[in-house]
Amino acid sequence: MPVFEELSKSTSFGGRQLTLSHDSTSTGTRMKLSVYVPPAAERAPVPCVFWLSGLTCTEENFTVKAGAQRMASELGLIVVAPDTSPRGEGVANDDAYDLGQGAGFYVDATAAPWTPHFKMYSYVTEELPALIREAFPVRPGALGVMGHSMGGHGALTVAMRNPELFKSVSAFSPIVAPSQVPWGQKAFTAYLGEDQAAWKAHDACELVRERGFPTQILVDQGDADGFLEEQLQTWRLVDACKEAGQSAKIRMQPGYDHSYFFIATFIDDHLRHHARILG
Amino acid sequence: MPVFEELSKSTSFGGRQLTLSHDSTSTGTRMKLSVYVPPAAERAPVPCVFWLSGLTCTEENFTVKAGAQRMASELGLIVVAPDTSPRGEGVANDDAYDLGQGAGFYVDATAAPWTPHFKMYSYVTEELPALIREAFPVRPGALGVMGHSMGGHGALTVAMRNPELFKSVSAFSPIVAPSQVPWGQKAFTAYLGEDQAAWKAHDACELVRERGFPTQILVDQGDADGFLEEQLQTWRLVDACKEAGQSAKIRMQPGYDHSYFFIATFIDDHLRHHARILG
Fold this sequence. Notes:
Two copies of one chain form a homodimer. The first copy, chain A, is α/β, with parallel strands linked by helices. The first copy, chain A, has one domain: Alpha/Beta hydrolase fold, catalytic domain (Rossmann fold, 3-Layer(aba) Sandwich), CATH 3.40.50.1820. In chain A, 35% of the residues lie in helices and 23% in strands. Chain A contains ten helices and nine strands. In chain A, strands 1-2-3-5-4-6-7-8-9 form a nine-stranded mixed beta sheet, with helices on both faces. In chain A, β6, α4 (150-161) and β7 (168-172) form a beta-alpha-beta unit. The longest helix of chain A has 19 residues, at 260-278. Chains A, B: Its EC number is 3.1.2.12. Chains A, B: One of its GO terms (cellular component) is cytosol. Chains A, B: Serine hydrolase involved in the detoxification of formaldehyde.
């Protein structure tokens, strides 16, 4: 792994749980990520799934809280969890938790002061896939993407815009229509400017209607999630998939909230979804 | 749950993951703990297992990192994880990570300045079992204890001293002979004083030779654990069990370190061990 510096390494379910860093050409910053390498990857190339995290998260939250390693080991999946934004002293930021560092929203910023470093779309769709393929035994064509909340938005949108790259997609509690809700409107205004035409290219509901996705979309959403009504509005994705004839399994899970306890409960289903499609 | 204040509640694997607090008569402080209540406990009393954490931990580490809820839900086990010491401004402390707040060592302190609040032995063997039985549907007589590192020491010693209370015991990376290693010698000198006779009552290897435990002891230890040689010295427990004829399964796990990635890998085995003995 010449490009990556290894910050930590632990054995987990017979595989390797790594924390890595590297200089990113997309963001112009040092980026951190975690990578789980299952035992099967020591023998032959295996499928790989990216995990995109939500607001305030780093590469660590999913890695220590989701309990994904057990099933990733069993199914033989590499799982890659990047940080959610560029970071550092020279990088633009905002005091709010939902803008700036920790809140990259998986777009390439085109508005000041975010333009120089906030290039998370290019990072997760171009630079990171190439680096991961170079450093780990990823089976060609077998890449999927999943995420949570802001990262659920990220997973759905980067997959629909790049179906030749990402063959499978799923999301927990995604922001399905960022153009229509406060989190998305605030972030897109800052990163993409006032012209809402540019927003549509990063809005999952718009993309479902415009492009769709070749394989079934899996979404889990807790009905006790405090963000459901104002920010997530899952029903918009249900409607869009119905209208567009998009194959989707969108499940409302009774009693579950927005936390990693929810994610941990259903992560096995998501990993199985990706493994089934990625073959 | 009149005695407990509920600080948070999340649905997890069909059960309830709670964070609670209460005024402790043992420590004279407000104590926090986490409790996982499996779906089966809504229908009938179920067995309960205490988890005792290691140095620097609170009630949160195990709860968010071990991934225990999945198997606890499947087996129908209540899992209780208390904090590792009293805390607060009026509570004695030390700048070191291995003494004072976050490092209670599951003993009742008899030396200044620790005596007034550092009563973790009484807390986990008397007060907490009584409160948990009052607030949750624990099947009578079906209580076990497990822990990690300092908490592995805690689990082994409180179980052997109270076999009528704890019917099953297991540990990850336990400090098996605190009287013989720096962590234990420092803590016991501070909490129990210079007289090493008092230390023996809280030393797992001494207790194995003196009392033993009625059911099999399960221990997992990673051979890549950086604390193995100096602080944990698992071979001392192997020898003590052999000499005393104590039934024990002590496994060296190749490649594993001291982290929660190790715990998460083998927590299912430990929960099954407790469920089998607790019936």
